[in-house]
Amino acid sequence: MSEKGHPGGHPGGHPGGKTGGHPGGHPGGKPKAGMPTALPGFDMETLTDTREKGAERDGAEQRLDKRLFMQLICFGECKDTAPLIKELEASGMEAVLYADVSDARGVGLLTMSEDPEFFVTKLRDFLNTSGFAALKPRPKFTMFGRTYAIGFEKNLEDWLLKRSRRVSCTEEWPWAVWYPLRRSGEFALLSKKEQGSILMEHGVIGRAFGEADLGHDIRLVSYGMDKNDNDFTIALIGKDLHPLSVLVQTMRRTKQTSTYIEKMGPFFVGRVIYYKPFA
Question: Are β-strands 136-137 and 261-264 bridged in parallel, bridged antiparallel, or unpaired?
Fold first, then answer.
């Protein structure tokens, strides 16, 4: 899959919504007597299959129990980025450092790993022992999510594990707009046909901007991993900032954004000042 778009949509373009739940529900074990063994709208046989699923390839459906986790952490009161860059280079971590366009002393640190333990071990230790420890954290801009599939991916492994790394670490695309979003519960109640029609708008717009090399997206799901209960984390990446702004503006006119997006932002806008090339 190229960086020029993805079936299903651009920012927030993913069928589904909040799954809800029930207080006191049992996450596992055999159902008790009288407990329903089926739920309307759910395929009970595949309900607990958490593998990512792509399109058929060589006659077989692609399934993969791997994904990439990405986190953006922002800081203020950074007068000199050179020491931070030096320490990031020495750490060997997959990372991107942004200069914050809205704060002359602000920076954003993007890190990524297929293992979520990385963020509470190696990254945590690094942030507490490096020059980042002296900076002022800006927790309201923290974003965290994982790559996901919607079932149309021709190369599932590349989509889940490699594409987001390439997009965030391409020298020709230094500008980035990151933001979280939460979709309203009403969207989840729509039929699959209605959802598909609504998401198609984002898909067409996203592909057009990607094919023109005006903007490329990173889409992550954040269900249960975002302190503000956001559903998605989105990044728009490109060689210039203006087209990314136009892309957001264009998306505002779609039915999904104008009707079914409950909240977007805060927005972090930055330009890459350091990245570790993705091999």
Answer: unpaired
